[in-house]
Structures are given as structure tokens and as C-alpha cells.
Design brief:
Helices cover 30% and strands 22% of the residues.
Amino acid sequence: MDAAELLLMLADDEFGLLELPAASPAPAPEDRLRAAYEEIADFTRQHGRPPAINPTDIGEAKLAMRLKAMCESDDQRLALEPIDELGLLAEPEPPASIEEAVADDPFGLLSGDDELFTLRHVPKTQTMPADVARREPCEDFESFRPLFVECHAELRSGARKLLPFRNPSQIGPGRFFVQAGVLLYVAAVGERTHDEIKKANARTRCIFENGTESNLLLQSLASNLYKGGKRVTVPDATVSAEMGLQPDTPMASVYILRSLSEDQQVKELPELHKIGSTSSTAEDRVASAASDTTFLGAPVEIVEEYRVPRGVERRFETILHRLFAAARMDVWFERNGYVTAEANEWFAVPFRVIEDAVRLIENDAIVNYEYDTEHQLLRLRSQQPSQ
């Protein structure tokens, strides 16, 4: 899809993806706190237990995070004490004896079972493939040298950036990567074939800046890059050319972030991502992340940055927010003794699914899909999830 089609699709909004609901008066902080508690209490009554951090159940995880924040706040516990008939905010009594501690060990961690010393899931001995790609001197390296020189210059100027490698789909002809500290250029990708599990593979021609080359399989290259490798982004001028825009078209960003917070609640949700947009660059936007509640008050990692024509970024972001609304995580912060939901752009969605959604937006097909939170995938609106 070129830029004109993308702009037209977002501007027309035939299916109402960008329609905003009518604004209602904001509830008072006290009412919001009580409503949050009542939702937790309703869950506890229904299930016979308080909510717990559960990466497979986003709704329960939300409630568990809220309950933890309430328990850790003296002001919130005091405000909710009159309605805490279930004792959810009371500090649990420590076990009176070792026997009691062992008895309350649902996972058998203290049972002394000899199976603790039994090795399981030990990788089998790997069989090396018959055709192993090795690096050899690149006879026509001089024709590639200017590309490496230009890439280094663009990295120094900020026109290109280094981002973590995430997916084999990012590998394509004309793209740069960094493997074990060495810059490589993908000069060609051969015909793709699929194995028995429908995983695409192909021979590549990779040129390394030290003057060598290799014909790694695409999946082998991806495997190497997963081990701390980096993807080199494409300059705006190249993006503009691929979208059929003028080279000087102002660009903006839709970005995907991962939190580096040490908070246990955040660490227990490995698929938690922030979906945001900016008229600048993702790097500029996250410069002060560690002191900004929007970013959970912690450093972040840029997982992906999609460069789009300026003016498109907010609409693009809104479509993604609407699509993943059921997986939104309300991250609660306390100010002046009251709970406020400041960070509302975080979603417990795997990055691969966000990538799929972006492709569907670009292909004008997103209106046919919805997000299935239970199975963590996009499915056709008329399609029922498999059992």
C-alpha cells in the first residue's frame, strides 16, 4: 500500500474504527478507588479466591495488579477499610509452624520430593546439517564497500538506528544487521521453501564488513541474530521512496516499547508492550522514560518503530488501541493519596500479533479481524476460536 492509499483509508474511516465514544463526566478519585475494589471483590466472590497474576488471563492479571497496589498503600487501605468485608487488604498472618507452612504449599515446593533432582527437558544432541554455511572471502567486496561506508555514516548521523532483532520476516534483500558486533548486508534471498511445520526458509547471500560472505539459510541467520543481534533501521528517505512519497516528506512514528522495569508485576507479564505515537522519533520520545509515569517510571526498550507520514501516526495508533482494547493494562499510580490510572497505552499482547496487525492495516484488511485475548491471536470476526 502506498502513502496515498493509507491516508485515504485512515481519513475515510468507513468502518468507524476512529469514532470516539461520547465523553462522560470523570468519576471522583474516591469513587474510582471504590469501583476498582468492588471489581476485585466480585472476582473473589465468584472464584472463591483473590485474583492472581496470570499471563494467560489478562482480566485477572489487571485485578491482581490493582489489588497489590492497594495493599501496598496505607492511604488506600485506610480509605477502603469500611468496605473491605472480605479482608482482601489485610496483611496475611505468617504460618505458626513449619508444619503449617508445608501444609500451605500447593505446588509442593517444600515436600522434599526426590524428583527435584531428576533432570527433565534436557536438549537432545543436535545433529549438524550436511550443508553447513561457512564464511569465505567475498571476491566482489569492493562493489559492496560503499554501502557499508554509507551505513556507518547514517548510523553516526542518526538517520539509521539499531533495534533488537525480533522476527525472520525482517530479513530481506538490501537490509543491514549486526551479528556478533560485525555489520552484515543481505545481498540476496533465494526462493523460499516451507518445511513440515510451514516455516519459510531460503538461502541468503550475506556480505560481512570484514570482506567475507556466507550463504546462510534464512532461519540460521535469524537464529544467530536472536543471540544479541541487531537490526539496522532504514532511513526516512528510503521509507518515503518505498511509499511513493517525496524525499522531504515530514515523517512521524508509531512505536512499540518493552518495559525494563524491575517491578515484579511488570516482569510477570513478559508480553506487555506500550503502543504509542509521536510526531518525532521513538528515541526522542523515550529520552526521559525513567522519570515519566507514562512509561511506568522505568527505562524502556524500543522493540519496533514504524515510520509513517506525519498526520497518520495518531490514527494508526488509535486503530491498534481499539483492536487490542481487551488486553489493555491499567497501570495504577498514587498521587495525593488517591489512585490514578496514568499509564493507559500498555497492552498484554505478543509483539508478533502487533506486527500482524500493522500488516493488516497496511493492506486495508484490519476491519475484518478482532483480537482473541484467550488464544492471543487475530482472527476473522466471523471465525470462532478453535477448541
